[in-house]
From TrEMBL:
UniProtKB keywords: Cell membrane, Cell projection, Cilium, Cilium biogenesis/degradation, Membrane, Transmembrane, Transmembrane helix
GO cellular component, one term: ciliary membrane
The family this protein is said to belong to: Belongs to the TMEM17 family.
Lineage of the organism: Eukaryota, Metazoa, Chordata, Craniata, Vertebrata
Name used for this protein in its record: Transmembrane protein 17
Membrane topology annotation: Multi-pass membrane protein
PANTHER family: GEO07735P1-RELATED-RELATED, TRANSMEMBRANE PROTEIN 17
Pfam families named in the record: Transmemb_17
Subunit and partners: Part of the tectonic-like complex (also named B9 complex).
A single BP term in Gene Ontology: non-motile cilium assembly
Protein species of origin: Chrysolophus pictus
InterPro entries with a match to the protein in the record: Uncharacterised_TM-17
Annotated TM spans: 7-25, 31-53, 65-86, 98-118
Role noted for this protein: Transmembrane component of the tectonic-like complex, a complex localized at the transition zone of primary cilia and acting as a barrier that prevents diffusion of transmembrane proteins between the cilia and plasma membranes. Required for ciliogenesis and sonic hedgehog/SHH signaling.
Length: 163
């Protein structure tokens, strides 16, 4: 559900961030100009990929896609949004602060939800795999060639004398 709302929120976030960047661009120092333009380009590309992976991983129950979504969220998007939210050298405006807080809340919730979902999905797939292996063992039992059978004793007790 969070991904659904994030898909609709992202264009609003992008538009408001670009408008605020355009308004404050003349007062920023040169290195913050470069950093903000780079962050906007990277965030836009990463967010599209991240949302696609989240949808594919969630709807089709694919572990690699969902893991990619989780990693992109945790390692790239969340630090970038926290940088935009807490770096005071960027001359943060109220609109920017509000949309970045909402975006950060989305990301934090998605990191937690994706971790829980990944854990459940991997456990379910592992259980399914083990059950399939168990069914194959019942159809074609494997003989134990490495140890004695149940009828054989390892040490015959009759040959041992009294203790």
């Amino acid at each position: 559900m969070s991904l659904y709302f994030n898909v609709y929120f992202f264009p609003f976030w992008w538009l408001s961030t670009v408008v605020m960047l355009q308004l404050k661009y003349p007062v920023l120092s040169d290195y913050y100009k470069f950093i903000l333009v780079t962050v906007m380009i990277l965030t836009s590309l990463i967010e599209v990929i991240r949302l696609y992976l989240g949808y594919m991983g969630n709807l089709q129950e694919k572990v690699p896609e969902l893991a990619g979504f989780w990693l992109l969220t945790l390692l790239l998007q969340l630090p970038v949004i926290l940088f935009l939210l807490f770096n005071e050298g960027l001359n943060i405006q109220p609109l920017e602060r509000s949309v970045n807080i909402i975006f950060a809340l989305f990301l934090i919730f998605q990191v937690i939800a994706a971790f829980v979902t990944l854990k459940r999905m991997v456990n379910k797939l592992a259980t399914h795999f083990h059950l399939n292996e168990f069914d194959r063992l019942e159809e074609h039992p494997v003989r134990h060639h490495y140890g004695p059978s149940k009828e054989e004793n390892i040490l015959p007790m009759a040959s041992m004398g009294p203790c």
